[in-house]
Amino acid sequence: MMLNGMALPPRPESLILPALEGAAPKALGVAALPDSAPICSCHNVSKGDICQAVNNGAGDMSAIKSCTRAATGCGGCSALVKQVMEYQLAEQGVEVKKDVCEHFPWSRQEIYHLVRVNHIHTFEQLISRYGQGHGCDVCKPLVASVLASCWNEYLLKPAHLPLQDTNDRYFANIQKDGSYSVVPRMAAGEVTPDGLIAIGQIAKRYQLYSKVTGGQRIDLFGARLEQLPAIWRELADAGFETGHAYGKSLRTVKSCVGSTWCRYGVQDSTGLAVRLEHRYKGLRAPHKIKMAVSGCTRECAEAQGKDIGVIATDKGWNLYVCGNGGMKPRHADLFASDLDEATLIRSIDRLLMFYIRTADRLQRTSTWMDNLEGGVAYLRQVVLEDSLGIGEELEQEMARIVDSYQCEWQTTLNDPQRLALFRSFVNSDQPDEAVQRRDLRGQPQPLLTETLPEGELPSRPWQAVCDLDAIPAQAGIGARLGERQIALFRFGERVYALDNREPGSAANVLSRGLLGDVGGEPVVISPLYKQRIRLRDGWPCDGDEQAVRAWPVKVENGKVWVGNQQLLARAEAS
């Protein structure tokens, strides 16, 4: 507000303190921002720049990104860029549609109800009945999340695998060099000495960088794709399960030690946090969910900065909702006081399922509640008073999710076909030579090197790379053409080959991108920087320079062959 010369509201404290009963919403909205307000700090894009782009004809996020480069850096401003764009469109009298993308003329809430009411279990069923085209990096993960929230099926089933972004496809968080981080669950931060020793031994054995996270668990960085199953087999043998750090789901339930150890504690906060984490683990939602439980009002677990916060009292538990930290911190609102444990859990069940039903795509609980007409008072009526008469239904939906939980890594380790997907190259056991390490402060760290020389191409005009069935349908996999890294994609009845190096990051990860189409044009969306690249020639959808090289492909008798002469011409749409 100071940087933009904005006047303080009549009650300045309302900007940072919880809302008072009956008070007006405290969000100022993008309308109050001056044109000079910075929206995208990565590329120095102001509100005025975005408004001018809209005035010049940019009417969707793709056009805004192309014109201004806003939201093409870290991506953290995407939601705000979209709000500014929609505000300016409304100012021009243009109807602002809530369609999720060009493939579905529906909002996220409408898609959720279509899936739930019509018992739709796959993306293909949904898009054939209510959409068009092949999907994209917006609608595919969205539908994957909705399907998981409704039916909680294994994410790597053949029907679901093509919908998963790289983190959900490989059950790990991708890093800037194409390696992954591994986060085993430590419910409420509890871990046994043997568990700590096992994690330390695994980190040493696989040369992983280890760091304690803010969520009271340990993150192991630097695992290569093909190492993930071996690492997780050892973690599972040591009693660990997936921590879902990669998903839009429950992350952690942070806690203090509570009355068990602390002289100030009035309730067993750790015990409740363990129960909550095991109840809601694996729950897929529009965005990540963080929780915390404090054993007294000293608030050592910082529960009032979480989506769901619980603070012990002499009479029970106080429930706080819809807080968050991050770029735009929000203090949680006191939702209910002195609840017994059963009532507390029932209230959380209802609130989370109502959030999953009604939130927009990638909308945190804080923004969701701020946008609810009636705010926290309305939410109390729905959850505590059952004003809509759906309380029991919400509880039953949550019960089905809880009862159908599975550790995704344990399921994967028991399925040889799924394990075959965890490899950098379908035709080589050689590791990615670009993933290198150096020692810093006694631990392995990424070694940033100059671009490595490309491997030699095969001498023969065509190389048999793999069986067609080795490439997942509507997805990609890495391969080697001679010594050179390429990405193979199976899109419908065709197979395409591109360089595996993602242009924006220079990491060899393009094979792990999502497939879709833009205006009917088959594309791959790069996993790190979300660049849309045409499969037929390697050109970006909105650029004038080739992004990656394309290679000729033929399929004979179920075998995929790739030629050693790159496709030089910019292909015209067929």
TrEMBL record:
Domain (Rieske): residue spans on this chain: 462-562
A GO molecular-function annotation: 4 iron, 4 sulfur cluster binding
Cofactors (names): [2Fe-2S] cluster; [4Fe-4S] cluster; siroheme; FAD
GO biological process entries: energy derivation by oxidation of organic compounds; nitrate assimilation
UniProt protein name: Nitrite reductase large subunit
Source species of the chain: Klebsiella pneumoniae
Pathway this chain belongs to: Nitrogen metabolism; nitrate reduction (assimilation)
Protein family membership: Belongs to the nitrite and sulfite reductase 4Fe-4S domain family.
Gene name, Swiss-Prot/TrEMBL: nirD_2
Keywords noted in UniProt: 2Fe-2S, 4Fe-4S, FAD, Flavoprotein, Heme, Iron, Iron-sulfur, Metal-binding, Nitrate assimilation, Oxidoreductase
This enzyme's EC code(s): 1.7.1.4
Coiled coil: none
